[in-house]
């Protein structure tokens, strides 16, 4: 039985800004550049009360809260703070798997400090972050990664929630299926159509039926509904790609996909800003009404360094789709891949040939 902790910094970018500028404390802070094409990188909890969220267009955030304080992001500073947080984690275990600058999994089945329980380790990490960095973090403790991530969000902000092995069977039945990884709007609607709203409902659906309806993901749903997750903590796994995709209620022609591509590019770009690595390849993914998947990609001479450049490349990739203009599409996705570390020669390499799948 593993002991897993998921640590999630509270409103990380905005909290760093409020820590470093006392005049921002207690005020609705939005970390974003102003402008029609800018998106929110982070929002303080004061700003979230107005409905402001990450990846939201900055102009919408300004409409929701005209008194919000907009602060231009400083990713070099956030990366430095993230490294300090990581150093604290590594005092307790070498098995740290960063997900972004502000969250990570830790396997503390055997911890380096000799603390008797994972809960004690989580408390120590949170206290060290508070004392040394003047920031708060929420943590979840559980026997696997899936449940630890669920738990870390349970008492946010500045909270700790523990799901012990003997509590899993009682915890899972009331958990909404929308909390399961991979269950987005469309999958949630498909589950609701067969009367599934909670993991308890999902547990009563036969595995064979889930596999028939959802393919290989059906088996994953079956396991998750019971709180089962066999994935291990993988330390120092570098970011390889980020992406966002959307399935439409009605199939659309290529000519109507521009606003969807732009919105998804905004989300993918915001996710890419949470890593210190540099993405070189822009990817456009399409799924036709008859479930054929097309992927078009482009690696420019230099990596896209602004949201506008990233958006433009994603939009231009439509020109490489050779299907009949009347073809309808049920899904579109936008991604940034082929990540390298800053300063690596590949970060400014010549473009690769287009990838097709």
Instruction: Indicate the CATH architecture of the largest domain.
Output: 2-Layer Sandwich
The CATH superfamily of the largest domain is: DNA polymerase, Y-family, little finger domain
Overall shape: it is: globular
Order of helices and strands: EHEEHHEHEEHEHEHHHHHEHEEHE
Percent helix, as a range, is: 25-40%
Strand order of the largest sheet: 5-6-1-7-8
Poorly predicted residue ranges: 347-357
Number of helices: 13
> How many discrete domains?
4
* Main sheet characteristics: 5 strands, mixed
Give the CA-CA distance, first to last residue.
40 Å
- Beta-strand percent range: 15-25%
Number of strands: 12
Provide the CATH top-level class of the largest domain.
Alpha Beta
Q: What is the arithmetic mean of pLDDT? A: 90
GO molecular function: damaged DNA binding; DNA-directed DNA polymerase activity; magnesium ion binding
Main location: cytoplasm
InterPro entries: DNA/RNA_pol_sf, DNA_pol_Y-fam_lit_finger_sf, DNA_pol_Y-fam_little_finger, DNA_polymerase-Y, DNApol_IV, IMS_HHH_1, Rev_trsase/Diguanyl_cyclase, UmuC
Subcellular location: Cytoplasm
């Amino acid at each position: 039985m593993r002991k897993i902790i998921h640590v999630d910094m509270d409103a990380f970018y905005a909290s760093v800004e409020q820590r470093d500028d006392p005049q921002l404390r207690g005020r609705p802070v939005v970390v974003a550049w102003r402008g029609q094409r800018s998106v929110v990188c982070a929002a303080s909890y004061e700003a979230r009360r107005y409905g402001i969220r990450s990846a939201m267009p900055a102009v919408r955030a300004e409409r929701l809260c005209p008194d919000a304080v907009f602060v231009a992001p400083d990713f070099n500073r956030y990366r430095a703070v993230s490294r300090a947080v990581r150093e604290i984690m590594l005092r307790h275990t070498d098995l740290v798997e960063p997900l972004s600058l502000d969250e990570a999994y830790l396997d503390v089945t055997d911890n380096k400090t000799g603390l008797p329980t994972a809960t004690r380790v989580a408390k120590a990490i949170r206290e060290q972050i508070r004392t040394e960095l003047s920031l708060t973090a929420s943590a979840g403790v559980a026997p696997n990664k899936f449940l630890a991530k669920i738990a870390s969000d349970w008492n946010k902000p500045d909270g700790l929630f523990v799901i012990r092995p003997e509590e899993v069977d009682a915890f899972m039945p009331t958990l909404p299926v929308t909390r399961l990884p991979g269950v987005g709007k469309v999958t949630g609607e498909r589950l609701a159509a067969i009367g599934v709203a909670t993991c308890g409902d999902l547990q009563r659906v036969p595995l064979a039926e889930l596999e028939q309806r959802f393919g290989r993901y059906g088996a994953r749903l079956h396991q998750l509904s019971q709180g089962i997750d066999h994935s291990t903590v993988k330390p120092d796994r570098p970011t390889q790609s980020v992406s966002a995709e959307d399935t439409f209620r009605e199939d659309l022609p290529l000519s109507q996909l521009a606003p969807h591509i732009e919105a998804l590019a905004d989300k993918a770009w915001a996710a890419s800003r949470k890593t210190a690595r540099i993405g070189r390849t822009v990817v456009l993914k399409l799924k036709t009404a008859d479930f054929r998947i097309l992927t078009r990609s482009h690696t420019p001479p230099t990596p896209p360094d602004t949201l506008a450049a990233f958006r433009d490349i994603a939009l231009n990739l439509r020109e490489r789709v050779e299907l009949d203009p009347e073809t309808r599409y049920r899904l579109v996705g936008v991604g940034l891949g082929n990540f390298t570390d800053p300063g690596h020669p590949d970060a400014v390499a010549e473009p690769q040939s287009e990838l097709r799948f």
